[in-house]
Write the structure tokens for this entry.
Amino acid sequence: MDRRVFLKTAGLGTLALGASGFAPAAPTHLLSLSFDDGFRKSFHRAADIHEGHGLRACLNVIASGHLPSFKQVDEWIRPELMGSFDDWNDLKKRGHEIMPHSWKHLNLAKQKPRKAQKLIMKCLDYFEEHLRGYRNEEAVFNFPFNASTPALEEFLLERVLAVRSRMRYQQLYTEPMPGKETDHYLVCAANGPDNIDAWVETTVQEFLNAPGGWLILNVHGLDEEGWGPMTADYLDDLLGRLVKMPGLEILPVGKAMMKYTGA
């Protein structure tokens, strides 16, 4: 499908006006693009693109990614690509959301429980010390590899606002619109390792044609960076179309939780 047909075919196209023909409809659809890992170039570019459309980016970073001790995780997460807390404080000052994505990107579900808890606390403590204005009570912890256990989720939810986990491949998964009864365990959809432009287009289109809800898309870097990258030009084009769509709100995950759940 030509992605520029989006606005004409999406189900939200009929939601522009209230009964009088003039009142804007309350949001029925909420979309969050949740960027993982902490790539300096990609995250600054993603922030710039969001700002160009009057939006703020949702950026989740590995706490130790900038330290000399940080080791390459895989072919995508490499020390030379990672940003520092100077970057994250600058972006946070500009209004973007910076959230924890673990201490060093280990699969916490495969660690011994005590080790996993220590790594979680090391990450949260580092954020409290180095990210200005950060508070655990307002944080969303984004599990690396979207891999968690019920025990780790319970451990975290005693300390943070919400957790994001359990990747869903090749399918649409939505939460209900958030409210006071929202479960603070959030799931997401993701895809990779190759370019995800076409997958994002299809997934968002299906979401917009659905009756409503909250879709969290877990994405990573832009252009050639990261697992399952999106092209920067496509992100710019996508947001340019979506911000014109009544009935749709685009928010970072933490801001959505704070706005709608009364947290």
